[in-house]
Amino acid sequence: MWALLVLIGAASVSAHVEDLSFDGQKVFRVIPQNDEQVEILNFLASIMEVDFWQPDSVTLLRPKMQVDFRIEAEKFFDVEVLLKDSGMEYQVLIDNLQAALDAQFDSKARTASHSYEKYNNWDTIAAWTADITAQNPDLVSRSVIGETFEGRPMYLLKMGKSGPDKKAIFMDCGFHAREWISPAFCQWFVKEAVETYGKDTVMTTLLDKLDFYVLPVVNIDGYIYTWTKDRMWRKTRSKNAHNICIGTDPNRNFDAGWCTAGASKFSCSSTYCGPAPESEKETKALADFIREHLSTIKAYLTIHSYSQLLLFPYSYTYKLPPDYQELNSIASAASKELASLHNTTYTYGSAASTIYLASGGSDDWAYDQGIKYSFTFELRDTGRYGFLLPESLIKPTCEETLLAVKYIANYVLEHLY
Q: String of b and e for 24-47 (b: at least 16 CB within 10 Å)?
């Protein structure tokens, strides 16, 4: 067995060259049963390029955990032999990544203009933020809270009827560049708010009594890169002195147990924590805005994918938050609300104990700033499509998520602190 591994290793270690075609690349799912099988997956990751989809780093692997990972086409045979020889059960979730990538674009709305039922590139989203503001001046305003590493403005939409002493909910999307369903939801939420205000009693009350800050894409540079160069890119696009690799994981870059469990100090890692907390211009802009508005922001919602999870602090420690009982009951009720539409099942709970330890996350940071109602959504699906959710599933995904978000927002309104 180990002779075979060394052989594979010798054939596989090469300088990383960005291969922009994903033709023949495969996504595997395995469930290692014991420490030895975990060790084999660790070794595999050390000798060839393995892109972990779930969990997002090899360091998080443990027995009985569902593990999804992507490998290059020419490594398929080697990986398959290795898994068979180790007695590890596996399945191929995606047989040809390029075909799955092409199949994402199955929306009927193939227009050059903005559509809520297709994935929009950054230029289209940026123009949409201006349009939606211009069309709804009494409900929406737009500001710039900072700029990205590559110098792009970070647009924030503020939604709500103007009124005195209003409390607010902050929601962001697009932390990880390849999670395209996430920005799609932020756009959908804004659409629903402006279209149903005055018609839907819950939404009308929410916008009358609360403000919503919506950041449609946090990691704009990374998002653009997934459209132009590498669909599977995750991190920011920052260049750090002395680092050979580009980018930081923005959701490992907050000052919440920074760079401890579930984050990497290695700049080439997909979970690189950055050289310091808030080293990324994007995370600093977000954190600065929240700090400036701490007296009014009462809930923080961050939208990711995939896995169908509704999580709350903590991620960086197994310690439960002081508000555990309340947060757990909100997550339970919101998950039920979400499932009521399309029977989509969500798992909910405190993040570290529900999935794995991960430090430096924005939700933990917000909670530690005193924002009690802090939640992370991991949207559809559970791995059939992973990060390549087809456009035909945007509408049902956003419809059901909206129910959960409205539930949480209404709860927050009724339990202001």
A: ebbbbbbebeeeebbebbebbbeb
Q: Tokens 């205000």 label which residue?
A: 197
Average pLDDT over residues 243-249: 91
- Domain assignments of the chain as residue spans, ordered by start: 26-103, 122-414
User: What percentage of the chain has pLDDT greater than the value 70?
Assistant: 95
What residues form DSSP beta bridges with 69? 28, 52
What is the rounded CA–CA span in Å between residue 362 and residue 374? 9
Identify the residue whose tokens are 């709804």. Answer: 136
Q: What is the DSSP string of 293-319?
A: TTTTEEEEEEEEESS-EEEES-SS-SS
- The Cα 361–Cα 257 span in angstroms is 9
Instruction: Enumerate residues 6+ apart whose C-beta is below 8 A from 115.
Output: 107, 109
- pLDDT given at position 1: 53
CATH architecture for segment(s) 122-414: 3-Layer(aba) Sandwich (3.40)
Encoding tokens for residue 228? 């132009």
Tell me the residue ranges of DSSP E strands in 281-372: 297-305, 309-312, 347-350
CA separation for the pair 300, 184 (Å, rounded): 18
Look up residue 138 and give its two tokens.
Answer: 């009494």
**DSSP result, 36-96:** HHHHHHHHHHHHS--EEEESSSGGG--TT--EEEEE-GGGHHHHHHHHHHTT--EEEEES-
Is CATH 3.50.50.60 the right assignment for the domain spanning 26-103?
no
Render pLDDT for 130-139 as a digit per residue (tens, 0 to 9).
999 999 999 9
Q: Which residues are part of the catalytic machinery?
A: 378
- pLDDT, tens only, 74-95: 999 999 999 999 999 999 999 9
Task: Determine how β-strand 167-173 pairs with β-strand 90-94.
Answer: unpaired
Alpha-carbon distance of 301 to 375, in angstroms, equals 5
